[in-house]
Amino acid sequence: MSDPAVENSLPTRAPRTNDDTRAFWQATAEGRLTLQRCTACGTVIWYPRAICPECSSFELTSFDASGEGHVYSYTVVHRSVGGWNKVTPYVVAYVELDEGPRLMTNIVDGDPAAVAVDAKVRVVWHDTGEGSALPRFTLA
């Protein structure tokens, strides 16, 4: 599943980590997208946390996701502020992973006009330079 980093023009700031997210961000540095699964109810969980949002169990395990999914919803940003104003247009999207959860991300490495709802995507990594990488997606 590990994909090489793609050309990155978007700002890529390192995330703040805590005890609940540290393992996730360490895996990103290895090119692995990890999710959690509740062993009590089977719910697949995004974002990393200590408790299941469905049944309140603390019995969570982590596993490597496929890194594949489809665009659930998106918008093309044409005007922005800060460092983002230099990279317009860019795509902000909810990607629904094949494993079920949806995450907010960017669709990169292509024409924003080519993005469509239900388009197949795969994860790519943008190195933060601080021991982690941001999962972004490209059209498959």
Keywords:
single chain; 140 residues; mainly beta; OB fold (Dihydrolipoamide Acetyltransferase, E2P); 5-stranded antiparallel sheet; 3-stranded antiparallel sheet; 1 helix; globular; disordered N terminus
Tell me what the structure shows:
6% of the residues lie in helices and 36% in strands. The protein has 140 residues and is mainly β. The chain has a single domain (22-139), classed as Beta Barrel (OB fold (Dihydrolipoamide Acetyltransferase, E2P)), CATH 2.40.50. It has a five-stranded antiparallel beta sheet with strand order 6-5-4-7-8. The longest helix has 8 residues, at 22-29.
Helix share bin: under 10%
Order of helices and strands: HEEEEEEEE
Q: Strand order, biggest sheet? A: 6-5-4-7-8
**Total strand segments:** 8
Number of helices: 1
State the CATH architecture: Beta Barrel
First-residue to last-residue Cα separation: 13 Å
Q: Which CATH first-tier class would you pick? A: Mainly Beta
Strand coverage percent: 35-45%
**What is the count of distinct domains?**
1
Task: Indicate the low-confidence ranges by residue numbers.
Answer: 1-6
Structural class: mainly beta
The largest sheet is:
5 strands, antiparallel
